[in-house]
Amino acid sequence: MTTASTLEASPAALEVHDVHKWYGTQRVLDGIDLTVRPGEVTVILGPSGSGKSTLLRVINHLEKPEVGHVSVNGELIGVRRHGRRLKELGERAILAQRSRIGFVFQNFNLFPHLTVLDNVAAAPVATGKLSRPAAQELARELLGRVGLGDKAGAYPRQLSGGQQQRVAIARALALRPGIILFDEPTSALDPELVGEVLAVIKDLATSGTTLVIVTHEIGFAREVADRVVFVDGGRIVEQGPPGQVLDAPRHERTRDFLSKVL
Ligand code: ADP
Ligand code: MG
């Protein structure tokens, strides 16, 4: 989480500029502008099908927008205007960018055939950032941080969903990303396991990691978000501090959504 003065002074960790994305004739993102400052925690809310996952996938270059661009730490990733490609990074540059962005999925996506330790250590080794022993040392440290220091030798199937998601968070941290994206990190979990995962994310939030979190956990958003962004129909309907968007929403669509999830 950040203070007002650091928000003003630092360059953007993430900038999404006028992003449009469509599948066939369906407009899924319809002109998204979003700026995230270093250390800022942004929570994205919105109904199912409103384009939240697509937005995260565009930020992480898993999808290309038809129009608009995304930059991470001031580095432009690809520029397209009205279908005309002005500049585009090559595959290597995209991979380098992606390694600076952590992504935590709804369904954990751990490697089933690798131990917990190797799940966390794999990416720094594969990308040549660390030797295997150094990556394993880092993985042990990160597993300790998410409260799973005793599970290093286990396989994902031996863990609860909450534990698997905490491994996925440790795995995202292993590349020391500048920003971590979470796509509904607790919606596949049994209710009693949600709290342990939110506690880990909250720890990251309070230690200054830049986070963009798609979630329906309104209480959590109120607690950790610097900014809440409400998306509907591929557009940002409103955004602001949690006290404003959650407690005094200006738009009918936001009020309607909140009345359904609260
Ligand atoms: P959310 O995460 O807010 O529920 P999504 O970004 O997953 O929304 O999806 C937004 C819309 O885009 C939905 O109507 C969905 O069906 C559609 N969509 C998402 N991915 C694809 C795809 N790969 N091909 C076609 N349509 C897609
Ligand atoms: Mg989604």
Protein model, in words:
By secondary structure, this protein is of the alpha/beta class. It has ten helices and eleven strands. It has helices spanning 4-9, 52-59, 91-98, 116-126, 132-145, 161-173, 191-206, 218-224, 242-245, 252-261, and strands spanning 14-23, 26-36, 41-45, 67-72, 75-81, 84-88, 101-104, 179-183, 210-214, 227-232, 235-240. The chain has a six-stranded mixed beta sheet, with helices on both faces. A five-stranded antiparallel beta sheet has the order 2-1-4-5-6. The mean pLDDT is 91. It binds adenosine-5'-diphosphate and magnesium ion. Adenosine-5'-diphosphate (ADP) binds next to α2. Adenosine-5'-diphosphate binds next to α2.
Please state roughly what percent of the residues sit in beta strands, choosing from under 5%, 5-15%, 15-25%, 25-35%, 35-45% or over 45%.
25-35%
What does the main sheet amount to? 6 strands, mixed
Biggest sheet, spatial arrangement of strands: 7-8-9-3-10-11
- Give the helix tally: 10
Structural class: alpha/beta
